[in-house]
Amino acid sequence: MPGRGYTNTELTIGLIEELSIPEPNSGCWLWLGYANKKGYPRVGYGGKKHMVHRLAWELFNRKKIPDGMFACHRCDVPCCVNPQHIFVGTPPRTKPSHRLRLQKHG
Q1: CA distance 43 to 51
Q2: Is 85 exposed, middle or buried (0-12, 13-18, 19+ CB in 10 A)?
Q3: In what helix (H) or strand (E) does residue 100 lie, and over which residues does it extend?
Q4: Which of 6, 42, 50, 52 is the most exposed place for a label (fewest CB within 10 A)?
Q5: Are the C-beta atoms of residues 30 and 73 closer than 8 Å to each other?
Q6: Chain centre to alpha carbon of residue 43
Q7: Burial (Cβ within 10 Å: 0-12, 13-18, ≥19) of residue 13
Q8: CA 58 – CA 71 distance, rounded (Å)
Q9: Is 16 in contact with 57 (CB distance < 8 Å)?
Q10: How far is it, in rounded angstroms, from Cα 34 to Cα 16?
């Protein structure tokens, strides 16, 4: 809508809804916008680039991911932006051996 100002939150929620499609079998929300070389979605606003899965988690949980922590995918699908598939973890928990343990034990 021309002339309408958006807050960063409105803009980000709008982008997530517009630029992702639900995958009915897995529950993933597959990002259709720009992704980096590793397949992780990115978006720019406010003069900065942001990882969309991090933004999705922060928006839906209404809090920031602490410094030094990572937004990790339970589904192991880099382009997924479903906040229910994202958890906050430390770098070692993002390794495949730790993913298997998380899948078994939640």
Answers
A1: 7
A2: buried
A3: helix 96-105
A4: 6
A5: no
A6: 11
A7: middle
A8: 9
A9: no
A10: 12
Interatomic CA distance for residues 50 and 71, integer angstroms: 12
Tokens 């990115």, residue located: 42
For residues 56 and 82, is the Cβ–Cβ distance under 8 A? yes
32-73 confidence digits (pLDDT tens): 989 999 999 998 877 788 899 999 999 888 899 999 999 999
| Tokens read off for 7 | 């807050």
How many Å from the N-terminal Cα to the C-terminal Cα in the chain?
Answer: 42
Half-sphere exposure (CA, 13 Å, Cβ side) for 36?
11
**In degrees rounded to 5, what are phi and psi of residue 25?**
-80, -40
Q: What is the pTM of this model?
A: 0.74
Q: How far apart are CA 69 and CA 8, in angstroms?
A: 22
In the chain, what are the domains?
8-105 (3.90.75)
